[in-house]
Amino acid sequence: MSRLVVVSNRVAPVAEDQPSAGGLAVGVHGALKQSGGIWFGWSGEIVDAPPETPTLYQQDSVGYATIGLSRRDYDQYYRGFSNGTLWPTFHYRTDLSRYDRKEYAGYLRVNAWLVEKLKPILRPDDLLWVHDYHLLPFARMCREAGIANRIGFFLHIPFPVEPVLRTVPPHRELTEAMCAYDLLGFQTDDDCTAFSDYARRQLGAVPQAPGVLAVGRRRVRVGTYPIGVLPDEIQEQSQTHSNSRQILNLKQGLHQRRLIMSVDRLDYSKGLVERFQAFERLLEMAPAHRGKVSFIQIAPPSRSDVEMYRNIRRQLESAAGRINGRWTDLTWTPIRYINKNYDRLMLMSLFRASQIGYVTPLRDGMNLVAKEYVAAQPADDPGVLVLSEFAGAARELGDGALLVNPYDTDGMAQALGRALIMPVEERKERHQQMMRRLRENDLDRWRDRFLADLRGDEFA
Ligand code: G6P
């Protein structure tokens, strides 16, 4: 069987006792651990002079090949075009997006440079699996460098509809470049359809068979591959700390209060301000819950050198301060807003100890926290997932979760109120439904389906 070479901007070995670095890292690491292979990408360091060759090391069954970026490359490719233009636009925040030709040139340059650094490590029959928006033109650059391997791409974030994508000036060049991949994978049918519709209208793509587009002389396959979790592993992890001092102290300190739990990178796409406001609305609407419920928001800072991220942090600090100032009394603080990350075992135990998983992004590719929350629950007394209808996860968990529109403050407050008093029988039924979906679409299946399609002979 051919060797698997994964490429992503952030390469992050995830140990159970290390803070995690987002959905991509958790998913890709989990998938690679099982199959073995090589993971190539940015080391996370900014260096004065990037080295000629990547640093290679092995950890368990995974080989790592990582390389530092120069300050200019980091500014233009990562901070600039990837996170200042593509990230906001793909999350439908065109109001926060900006475009700079120099940054785009840097984005293309770094993609080509990464290809050049990967090439010497590649074997002719390696299967390449490239991840996320930082690397849309990676396959195009590979082809130009004479790399003929089969190359698949998976987008972890949403793919926007045509009028939104067109706000990115080089949209056509970018999507044409995406067609140099053999297989394009998306989180949901909506994302996949958005790409196919765009390709038909803007690139003159012609559907040839279900999931196959002819674009000029190339044929590209497209498909939906919702990323999943490993439910049994999470069950186990969620029990490791159940009797630890920290969890017992937390439970004791709560004095029988109900616990609402959220964990997100501090990102404007996560709907944190709206979420705080809806929690406050619950306290306004339902006096019985005052003093009886605590909301823990864990939000480790992310991309702090991008201005929009500093702004959202300020807004949140002010919302948390204002709400707590209004409602806190001598024995109760309604919101615990925590700006640091916890290791995975602790997070899973916290999920298990909380009665509500409150996951309300304004827009999200999948949101693995929603799935992790469900997988961490005790089957005989599970908590309730309150989930945004704009998270990719809502497509699979919509029957068991309480779906909310994060722009509807009253609706979210009502859903929290309903979750807080939901009888155990209903909670169990909803939990079982969601667990069935998690098991059907787990992380192994995500990887296996994608790689089987990438290996398949349909391209011949
Ligand atoms: C999201 C993206 C990933 C990214 C992660 C963390 O999950 O889809 O590509 O790695 O956020 O963001 P960062 O900018 O720190 O890599």
Set out the fold topology.
Layout (H helix, E strand, L loop, with lengths): L3 E7 L12 H13 L1 E10 L8 E5 L2 E8 L1 H20 L10 H18 L8 E5 L6 H7 L6 E4 L7 H4 L5 H8 L4 E4 L2 H15 L2 E4 L2 E4 L2 E7 L6 H10 L4 H10 L3 E6 L8 H14 L7 E6 L8 H21 L7 E4 L5 H10 L2 E4 L8 H8 L8 E5 L5 H4 L4 E3 L4 H12 L3 H17 L2 H13 L5
Parallel strand pairs: 1-2, 1-5, 2-4, 5-6, 6-7, 7-10, 11-12, 11-14, 12-13, 14-15, 15-16
Antiparallel strand pairs: 3-4, 8-9, 9-10
The structure holds 6-O-phosphono-alpha-D-glucopyranose.
Organism: Pigmentiphaga soli
InterPro entries: Glyco_trans_20 (IPR001830), Trehalose_OtsA (IPR012766)
Protein name: Trehalose-6-phosphate synthase
For the biggest sheet, the summary is:
10 strands, mixed
Describe the global form. globular
* Tally of domains: 2
The CATH class of the largest domain turns out to be: Alpha Beta
The fraction of residues assigned to DSSP E strands is 15-25%
